[in-house]
């Protein structure tokens, strides 16, 4: 975030009265530590030294900024208006959902290369399929973490106990 964007966010939060300075922490510092945490996926304890603040102080100010930003959301996030009554309106002909996930595993050192995923973790790649009622109808576990999702899906569609899409 550049200085102008930071200043704009700061001005909005202060002018709307969503954040006020405390005796020891300024609004700019609160917003700065909030943005630093979310931008770098840091834990409170990891930035305590940078800001010379306790975990409790960081937590309190992080949550104050978070709540303030959430209060701004109706002014800046416009959800599309829908005329359909169903919560599944955009997915009315959808028969289900399919996704993969990586689960940490422990394997012998000799096999770890095959199970090392793109984030360098040792995982197994699992494919799951749910129907429109959010019930699992197919699960394919056991693929090495280095396997691509498309390769796992292709295998699920070609194997003897394959996943079959039932339409209608």
From TrEMBL:
One GO cellular component, as annotated: nucleus
Keyword hit for Nucleus: yes
Keywords: Hydrolase, Metal-binding, Nuclease, Nucleus
Chief place of localization: nucleus
Subcellular location(s) per record: Nucleus
Cofactor(s) named in the record: a divalent metal cation
Annotated family: Belongs to the HARBI1 family.
Name of the molecule in the record: DDE Tnp4 domain-containing protein
Originating species: Platanthera zijinensis
Lineage, uppermost ranks: Eukaryota, Viridiplantae, Streptophyta, Embryophyta, Tracheophyta
